[in-house]
């Protein structure tokens, strides 16, 4: 999917919502547990209930890896029921030496046909570039995350006289590897105070923004600070939507939660674009 196609979906749906499929077998509704593949059935119903309200789905790969071989089967089946015009994100946070990254890229882009994968930049260019070799596929690079530990490294000041943070150097250097047509950045919604600094360095790139909803980030604040002329945001919500109910009505409640976010996004798009 190209950047223009993604923007077209945002305009058509009046939404920049990404729904995280962080599907935990321990949190599934009880009535699904006797099925052959309860994780897939849960995902299928969530997707069916929300596909017209979001522009992306983001399975967190750890939730599927933890289930062993069956988890990979559930994930593959889930990908097959996601409509083709919806952007897919493998939230895998991979990154290793070149030949290993090549295999990770093959796994997610060729075998599973994800549109994008989250990548950790700590090992530098040769750990990221193998993910950038396939046309139409995206790298979403960790830049400024929403966890408390982000302070340990991402917020370190560089000793170069420019008073830049380390995350800003990550943004600046990584743009030498790819354009905004193939490179996005993860920027946590709880880091809203720094979004303006992100946009000064990366004005054109899409930002994947987790942390809205259960983690307490503000959709309005992150939208006002981070939106660019092509929206430039994919705002993720996981638990607040998919676990809105643990009963028979879980899909209906998920739709209601997603609809509330989409309505707010529609108003923000009308005002800010």
Automatic annotation (TrEMBL):
Q: Which keywords accompany this UniProt record?
A: Decarboxylase, Lyase, Pyrimidine biosynthesis
**SUPFAM superfamilies in the cross-refs:** Ribulose-phoshate binding barrel
Q: Which domain of life is it from?
A: Bacteria
* One Pfam family hit: OMPdecase
| Organism in which the protein naturally occurs | Pontibacter chinhatensis
To which protein family does this belong?
Answer: Belongs to the OMP decarboxylase family. Type 2 subfamily.
Single GO MF descriptor: orotidine-5'-phosphate decarboxylase activity
Q: What is this protein called?
A: Orotidine 5'-phosphate decarboxylase
Q: Which residues form the Orotidine 5'-phosphate decarboxylase domain?
A: 16-254
Database matches in InterPro entries: Aldolase_TIM (IPR013785), OMPdecase_type-2 (IPR011995), OMPdeCOase_dom (IPR001754), RibuloseP-bd_barrel (IPR011060)
Which reaction is this enzyme known to catalyze? orotidine 5'-phosphate + H(+) = UMP + CO2
Which HAMAP family does this UniProt record tie to the protein?
Answer: OMPdecase_type2
Which residues constitute the catalytic centre? 93
